[in-house]
Amino acid sequence: MGDQWVPAVCPCCACLTGGGTCPVCFWTDDGQADADADVVRGGPNGDLSLSHARLNYAVYGASHPRYQDMVRPPRPEERP
Question: What is the C-alpha to C-alpha distance for residues 8 and 29, in angstroms, rounded to an integer?
Answer without folding.
Answer: 10
